Structures are given as C-alpha cells and as structure tokens.
Queue: 2 jobs
Job 1
Amino acid sequence: MPILLLSTEGGALPGPFQPTPALAVWTVLVFVVVFVILAKQLFPVIVRATAEREETIKQQLAEAKQMHAEAQVALEEQRKLLAGARSEATALMAEARTAADRERSLAVEKTRAEQDDMLARARHDIEAQRIRAIADLRREAVDLAIAAAGKVIGQSFDGADDRKLVEEYLGSIGKSS
Amino acid sequence: MSVESEQFNIGEMMFHHTADAHELDFGGYIIHLPQWEPIHIAGMAIDLSPTRHVVFLILAAVIVLGLMWAAARGIEKARKDGVAPRGFAGMMEMIVLYVRNEIAIANIGEEEGARWAPFIMTLFFLILVANLLGLIPFGSSPTGNLAMTGALAFIVFLAIEVGGMVKLGFKGYMHTIFPKVEGLSGAGAVAMSLGMAPIEVLSKLVKPFALAVRLFGNMTAGHFVLLSLFGIVFMFSNLGIWSAGIGLVTGAVVVGIMFLEIIVALLQAYVFALLSAVFIGMMQHEH
C-alpha cells in the first residue's frame, strides 16, 4: 500500500493530526514572499485602476450634482421671471384696457357732442328755412290777395297802406287759427 | 491495520492521502522529494526538506501570483484603454475589491482597512487556492495540515499584536492586557486589572488558535468525508453486480460532496480572512 512509502526514506512522517514544523517554516516564508510581491507589485495595479474609476465616477457625480443645483437655481430664476412677466403682462393688459375704455369714452363723448352740434345746426337751419318759407309764403299770399282784390274792385291796390292792411289781416288769420 | 495486509484498509487510505509525505503520488507514479539535513535552531533540529504539502503550498503561491499577475495585466491594459476590465480580469478585480472593501475596510476602517487590505487579500487568496488544490485529482491541500494553518494563524497573531502596538503605543497596548476597569479606582482597580490580565492574554491566544483549528478541521474533515465515500467503493468491490450499483450511488454522492467542498474551500478562506480582519480591527480600535 502507498502508506509504506511514508517510511521509505528518512523515517515516517507524522499523520494528519500532527503538524510538521518544516511546513510551518515554509508557510511563513511563502506567505511573506507572496505578500511582498502582491502588496508591492500587483495589488496596487488592480486597486489603482479601480480607485481611478471610482474617482472619475465620484467626480462625475459631483459635477452632475453641481449641474443639477445650477439647473435648479436657473429654473427658479426662470420661474420668478415668468411670474414677473406674467404679472407685468396682466398689469399692462389692465392698463391697456383702461386706456382703451378711456379713449372709447372720449371718442363717444366727442362724437355725441359733434352729433348734438350738427343736430343743433340742422335745427337752426331748418328753423331759418321755415321762417324764410313762411315769410315768402306770406308775401306771396299778400301779393295774391292784393292782385285778387284789385281785380275784384277794378282798381289797383299797390299802395303801402293797402299792403299793410292785407298783411295785418293775414296776421290776424294766422293768430286766430 | 498493517500496511502489508492484502485487504483494503480505509483508515490507512485516508491517512495516506491526508498526511504529509516526502513524495508526490500521482496514482502510483511516485516522485521522491529531496531530503536535506535538519538545521539546528535553539537546540531544536528542524527538517526543512520539502514535503508534499510544501510543494502544494509553493504551487498555491505560484498560482496566486500567476492569477494576480494576469489580472493586473488585464486591468492595466483596460485602464490604458480607458475602459472597465472584462472577462477574467474583471472577475478577479471584482473578487479583489470584494475582499478589500467588504472584508478589510468594512471591519478595520476606511484608512487602516485600506492599509491592511493587501495582508487580508494575501491570506484569502493563498488559503483559497491551497484549499482548492486538495480537490483536484492527485492534489493535496496544505491547509489540511495543522502546521500551515498554525503558521498562518501565528502570522495573523503577530499582525494583530504588533499592529496594535504600533497603533495604540506601548501604554495603549498594555491596556489591552491590563484593562482599565470602569468605576473602580486605587487598589481595587489595580487588583481587578491584574486579575483580568490572564483572561486577556488567553483571549489573545484563543483567537489564532481558533483560526488554525477551524481551517484545519474543516479541510481535513472534508477530505475524510470524500475519502470515506471513495473507500466504500473499494470496500464493497467484491459484491458482483451490487458493487456497480454501490459504485454508481457513491460516485454520485462524491460528486455532490465535491461541489460542497468547493463551497467549503471558498467559505473557509472567507471566514479566515474575515475573522483576521475583525480581530485586527478590534485591536486597531481598542480604547
């Protein structure tokens, strides 16, 4: 059996429950060598790459946070500007509406005044025309009456007294009617 | 049972495969290792001749260095290309970072943890590969030898105590042996502190002892279970058709146990590294 080989050279080695001092010494030596090589040469390379990536990610996160904060500030400013513009627009609209109302009232007032003026003038003209027409009509009536009376009596009534008489008569008719 | 016996002896087989030896056995092909004269230190003769476990320990170290070298190369190339490492390098980076961040830094602290990380990572990877070497055909696990686990525990013990002394100063370190007793002063405090000292010293020694025995026990037990199952196949090899059935069932169980052993190998490396980090962290932050 292979276990014979344990005792072939240099005596039997201990079993699994008995430690061999040589292995302990070798373990310390090997561990120190591996530790030094890994700690000095290899782990720094592995960790450096990660540290750099972590640093880059941290930087990008910080930049993103800063940009986010800046965007928030800008957004707040925009909101304020928008609110200001909105209230300004409302004020302007109210002012414009007031001005328009005022202008419209003034225009209406002016138009009404002009209209009244025109109406007054028209009334005055009509009155003047009426008076003139009545006067003309009366004169014509007098002339006709004198002429008619002259034909009836066969003599002319063209004296000033006759005319006055007829006019007074016509005047009395006008008053009685 | 005598080795000359023709009958299969499961105990001998288990001891043969788990014990250290001066040769490498590749299924009957034997390579005898050189034997050197013992060196004498402080009246003790220490035989430093390479043994099977020493060979596999060195093989584990070479594998660890090779893996890390390949990973570092891949990671450095990816770094120069400005991309994240992929494939093997990416996987190794993930493991290294896990050990660094989740074991070392999480238990020792941000600043001290980063400084102790290479030590913890070396422990983890060396133990992991040494554990796994026992699962390959004709392989042997040096962590199944109390000498290796004891030596690693001794290194951790030195790291805890020396690191603690450097961090806390001599006076601070002495308080970890002679603790300050809150609420007491004068002779009572001194008496209580002196009374606590043996317990504190014992506590310092128990931690590495537990580390060594836990790793050794788990790895050896795993091998014993596997070898016992293998032994069943040989023990019942003269039962005709039944032998084939027993062989098949046992083979299936062995495959299952092998997967379990892979998990145990990973878990024990993790536990050793984690507890080392916890003990170092406790000492570093001792008040």
Note: The interface with chain B takes residues 1-6, 8-10, 13-28, 30-31, 33-35, 37-39, 41-43, 45-50, 52-53 of chain A (CB under 8 Å).
Job 2
Amino acid sequence: MTDREYAALSRVILIRLGLFGLPAGMLAAYLWYVGGAAWWGSFLLIPAKILIFWTEIAFNGREFTYAVPLELGGTSALVYQVNQLNLTFLEFVTLFAAWQHSSAKAAFKLLGWCLLWLIFYHVFSLFIQCYSLEIGPDFANQQHIMWESSWWFRVVKNVAAFDKFLLRFWAGFPVFGLALVFSSFTFKAKRKKS
Amino acid sequence: MIDQKDNTSRFKSFHRKYRPEIKFVLIFSILLGVSFKLVYNKTVADSVILPITIAETYVASLVLNSPILKHPNRQKGNVLIGTKGNPFRMEVRNNCNGVYESIVFLAAFIAIQIPWRRKIGWVAIGFLLFHMVNEMRLISLFIIGSGYSHETFVFFHETFWQYALVIVTLGIFLFCAHQVSKHQVIDANKLEEST
C-alpha cells in the first residue's frame, strides 16, 4: 500500500470507528451483560469439550469448571470466569463494525473467520489458564502434593502470563487480524476459481 | 481447481504486496514479546514500573483533593485512602498504570515504517494524551468506588475503562498515523510539482 492509501485508510477507519465501531461495541457490551456472557459460555462449552477432551469441563452461567483428576482418586475443580472473555468479544465486534467491507459476502466471510478464531482463542485461553494452575505450586499445595519446578512448567507459566496480558486488553486485535488475512486469501481464491 | 503452483504464487504475490505490513506485524510482535518479558521481570517491575505507578497515584490524589472534585484522600505509595468519613481504599497496581497499554502503543509506532523525525512528535503527543486518559480513569474509579456499589466499580474497572483505553489508544494511533502519512503525501506532491 502507498502512503496515499494509508493516509486515506487511517482516516476512513478513524471515522468509521466513531460512527459504527463504538456504537456496535456499546451494543455488544449491553448484550454481553444481559445474558450474552452466559450464552457465549454455553456455546463455548461444546468446542471446549471437543478440543480439551481429556478432562471434564462444565459451565454454570458465570464460570467454567475444569476438573483435575487427583492421584489419590476423585477430582478437584479449577474455575475460569467467563467475564474474562468480555474484552476480546467487544473488540472483535468494534473492529468488525469499523472495517470497510467490500461487499456483504466479504463481510459474512470475515465474520465467519472472526468467530472461528475467537472460539479457538477462547478455548485456548481457558485451557492454558486452567492448565498452568493445574501444574502450578498453589494447586499442589492445596492438594498437599510434592511440587518441583520444571522447564515445562516455566514454559506454560510464561505462555499463560502472556495470554493474560493479551486477554485483558488486546486479544481482539490478533483475532481480527488473523481473520482478515484468512478471509482475504479465501475470498481471492474463490474469485479466481470462477 | 486450484493447484499447488497457484497457491505458491498467491502466497508470493501476497508477500510482495503486503511486505511492509508483514514487516510491521513481525517487528510489533517481537517488541511486544520482549517488553512483556521486561515488565514482568521483578527488578524492572520494582525499579521502573512501581515508581511510575506511585507518580500516577500522586497526580490522581492531587486532582481528587482539588476544590473542583472535592474527594478528600491521602496517598500512601500506590494506594489512595479516602479521608473525612470515606472508608474507600484503592490500590493502583502495576497493570493499572497504563504502562502495558502504552507499550503496545509505542511498539506499534516503532514498527510503523515511517522516518523517526516524522513520527517522534506524534508519539510524544499520543503518549501524553494516553496517560491523561489513564489519570481520568484512576480518578473516576476512586469516585465510583467511594459513592457507588461494588458491582458498578467492577464493571467500570474490568470492562468500561479497559475497553475505553483500548479504543482511545487505537484512535490516537490511527490519528497520529494519519497525520504522519498525510504529511508524507503532501511532501511527495510538493516534490513532484518542483520536478
């Protein structure tokens, strides 16, 4: 892209952010807090159960419970609040609304990719946060299990910390960016075919 | 049918067409990873991030004590303590000081392919604006925490202000990037006219 195109694009997105992005984000926030969070959590439970198949996951309307089997028998539950996913959701809606779509078909395609990446990312976040707790010292202390640090734990802890850093503020942006890249690829491929 | 050759050439043309964007994403991601490691390092957190947090708490305390806002409080390190019958206390933690968000803002500006002499001024303006918004966030959270329910405080703390900061950062970045690229276009036009 040329400087001229960048200057025009940044101006258009800035205007669209105020005109469409912000109102869409407000509406998404309202819907999220009047039951949308519970609905999204219930929906996310299905792919989470498929993708994290070796443990039991349940959702009670506010939080996911991730069952950890104990060595001496029985299970213990780790909790993940669904509201931690709020910002990613709002950001994706805001960016989707602010983006200038070339056609309705392109918009639907982008929406599909956004949702797909959002689901993958949310399931990954749920897994990595719970798993880092499962193999961490706090959980071992609670269960009176001997605990020793390992390189694997350090890797998982760092990935989980980076995920938290993204999740609290920015994760909607990489989700939207990935969707944009994949959408542009598939959209061009289809046009070439015809 | 799309064969392997088509796919390879599509990737190649994508790479050629979006080379600056790919470069931007790579530099941005590396900077983000490095700065993430830095801010989570205990020494950096104690010697750099904490003093910034304390300074921001100090400014918030001054503004809250001013005759305009009339929310008497006492500042102790990174904690704001309500006085004159206000039992509310608010601890400004290391991830509430706007440092993490400003890192993303700076990383985006470093990664953007524009000469430093053009962008440095806008980076400074954006950074200042951004921290002013963060001060507004701290001040408003203390006022909300002092006078409203815990649920209201949680909503403003976890959703409203976080979302607002992200959008403000994006807005400031887009505005500054637009100003910089606009001037570059004007300069290019002038050069064309003169030749």
Note: The radius of gyration of chain B is 22 Å.
